[in-house]
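Lab channel / #folding
Pinned by the channel admin:
"Please post every new chain as: sequence first, then the structure tokens as a reply. Keep commentary short and put observations after the output so the thread stays searchable."

First post following the new format, from NK:
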Amino acid sequence: MTSTVFLIMLVLALVSSQSYHWGPCPDPKVQPNFNIEQYLGTWYEIEKLPASFERGKCIEANYATRTDGTIQVLNSQFYKEKFRTVEGTAVIPDPREPARLRVSFSYFTPYAPYWVLTTDYTSVSVVYSCTDILHLFHIDYAWILGRARFVQPQTVQYAKQLLAGEGVDVFRMKTTDQMGCRN
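Reply from TO:
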């Protein structure tokens, strides 16, 4: 029992900047009739739940299809005085639910959920991901994305209401700095 408590405390310390909660991951509804071809292109991060791998500004993601049918995910951010990019791969494991993608940024890490809860393809997307730790607790990730670096406040409010309605705690969401970014 002591080793279990120690393990839990160690993991909690590692994810202190994340948004974690007791119990397993929720199972939110995703975008019906999701069309990956319309989703491709550049999305700018408007707000997010804190994530240790995103600490910079000018955060954006670009999605493109590859010849093998997977999706190239190219994330970039300005951090510690330079632009940094990381390339990943997204797949659609079940064609009956194309809005439930899985993404990996390394050959050594498992694919993580990337669930598009809603999008209009032209201005806003709301994305959710969750990592379940031994069914004891989970780490939430959520993003409000826009096709432009800035969106209307009512769009952000709508996105937060949608996330909250699916059981995601939006209290810790932070606005991403998109000021002074390159085109």
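NK: DSSP finds three helices and ten strands in the chain.
TO: also worth noting, Residues 2-175 form a domain with the Lipocalin fold (CATH 2.40.128.20).
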